[in-house]
Inverse folding.
């Protein structure tokens, strides 16, 4: 290997390796062993220019972080899925109003009641409560 003027080692393709063996490219960015580019904050940029931070989350162009499944986390750490919905820590999807949708698309409100498609609240046994909290049965 050839060392340059600052003592960094240049490999056979002319890339410069720094002291930890990472490769610095011609613009001074550091590439790690996977070929990802690390910027000055030690964040890694992937091949499409997305920034991956030290815990391997990728940040998208608006600064949201994408986790290893490609889901995006918003500023509160909630995960946004590919449709832009935000998932909470249980994997439930929160809509734009902050309500949580369950797996069948019903909306769970802040007290964990489930709202059906007409906005009525369904309780834990699946009965539907109306706006005054009375229970409407299936008929």
């Amino acid at each position: 290997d050839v060392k340059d003027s600052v003592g960094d080692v240049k490999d056979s393709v002319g890339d410069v390796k720094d002291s930890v063996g990472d490769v610095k490219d011609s613009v001074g960015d550091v590439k790690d062993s996977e070929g990802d580019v690390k910027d000055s904050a030690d964040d890694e940029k992937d091949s499409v220019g997305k920034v991956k931070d030290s815990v391997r989350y990728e940040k998208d162009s608006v600064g949201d972080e994408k986790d290893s499944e490609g889901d995006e986390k918003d500023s509160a750490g909630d995960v946004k899925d590919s449709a832009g919905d935000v998932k909470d820590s249980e994997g439930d999807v929160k809509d734009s109003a902050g309500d949580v949708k369950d797996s069948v698309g019903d909306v769970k409100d802040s007290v964990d009641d489930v709202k059906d498609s007409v906005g009525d609240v369904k309780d834990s046994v699946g009965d539907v409560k109306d706006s005054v909290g009375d229970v409407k049965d299936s008929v």
Observations:
- The first strand starts at residue 2 and ends at 3.
